[in-house]
Specification:
Layout (H helix, E strand, L loop, with lengths): L2 E2 L7 E2 L15 H25 L13 H22 L4 H18 L12 H33 L5 H14 L8 H24 L4 H33 L3 H9 L9 H12 L6 H8 L7 H13 L7
Antiparallel strand pairs: 1-2
Helix pairs in contact: 1-4, 2-6, 2-7, 3-6, 3-7, 3-9, 4-5, 4-7, 5-6, 6-7, 7-8, 8-9
Protein name: CAAX prenyl protease 2/Lysostaphin resistance protein A-like domain-containing protein
GO molecular function: endopeptidase activity
InterPro entries: Rce1/LyrA-like_dom
Length: 317
């Protein structure tokens, strides 16, 4: 696979996403088991802790399923999804690493499925949809019970509801720190999960402490991340493989999401964000490299890649 050497001693995968060949056509139930185990431990641990501290006596925290609170959860969930779409389509290199990690995680769990368009409506898609829904709902129940039902409820015993939601959201963000990631990546992760946590906390507050709303919002968001990412990534990888070519050409087609054979500057920058992360060229460098180009094809894209190779070690701010 073609790689760029750009302000990093470690080669960077130009493709931006893993091929997933080892997990082709099957769900990785070992990873699924790990997810279920971790969420189960979170739920049991937080429930035990809250019972020791008597946070369960706080009058807000309860679950009562009814249409209004589910509608509220759906609205909040859609808002959080909208924020996620802004991150997904951003050209900022800091988001590029996060987006790439999301794609890798989803393919690692649900596997690479070749010939996706031929499988629309078939059993494999239903299998992934059901599993994604189960994982999403289980994660939502565990994390919302812990962070909103118990942590925010406990904080609200000594703080006003809004402050409690904000503090709970920050702690929710900190809980998603990955010790294997860089400080920069973790700061982005904390910020993103703090925002989503604030959204779920808003559903909790507006629902009068009814956990059904924030669980619904969280489950809807997670399901969209799992299933939509899996489906779109496989479709795009099918297209790139069908078009063929060397590593640079395959990468070009992977980021040609409109599948028209040309790319605009924003699409190229978003692709470079996936491939290079924080080492992505600065705006000034991109201005120089891009010049007066409009839409570009594979030949011009290759020229940009070659220019980036020549500039290796100079930028990426």
């Amino acid at each position: 696979m073609t790689r760029l050497e750009y302000k990093t001693e470690k080669d960077v995968d130009v493709g931006g996403i893993i091929e997933g060949e080892d997990d082709a056509g099957r769900v990785n139930f070992r990873v699924v088991k790990d997810i279920v185990r971790n969420q189960g431990l979170l739920y049991l641990g937080s429930t035990f802790t809250s019972s020791r501290w008597h946070w369960e006596n706080y009058p807000w925290s309860h679950i009562h399923i009814n249409p209004p609170v589910l509608y509220l959860g759906a609205i909040i969930g859609a808002g959080v999804i909208g924020t996620g779409k802004l991150v997904e389509t951003s050209t900022w290199g800091g988001f590029g690493d996060i987006n790439k990690s999301t794609v890798e995680m989803v393919l690692r769990v649900f596997g690479r499925e070749k010939g996706m368009e031929a499988r629309i409506g078939k059993g494999r898609m239903l299998e992934v949809a059901i599993l994604a829904a189960v994982i999403s709902l289980g994660t939502a129940i565990a994390e919302e019970t812990c962070f909103r039902g118990q942590l925010v409820s406990g904080l609200a015993m000594s703080h006003d509801p809004a402050t409690s939601v904000v503090l709970g959201a920050v702690l929710f963000g900190l809980a998603h720190v990955n010790l294997g990631s860089s400080l920069k990546d973790n700061m982005v992760t904390i910020g993103l999960h703090t925002m989503t946590g604030a959204g779920f906390g808003t559903a909790f507050i507006l629902g009068g402490g009814n956990l059904a709303g924030c669980i619904a919002a969280h489950a809807i968001y997670d399901f969209q991340v799992f299933y939509d990412t899996w489906y779109k990534t496989n479709i795009q990888m099918d297209y790139a493989e069908e078009m063929g070519g060397d590593g640079v050409e395959v990468f070009f087609h992977k980021i040609d999401t409109k599948r028209v054979g040309t790319l605009g500057r924003k699409e190229v920058e978003r692709g470079l964000g996936y491939a290079l992360g924080w080492a992505k060229p600065s705006k000034g460098e991109m201005d120089e490299i891009w010049g007066g180009r409009g839409k570009i094809g594979v030949i011009e894209f290759r020229a940009i890649v070659e220019e980036l190779k020549k500039r290796g070690g100079k930028g990426g701010r």
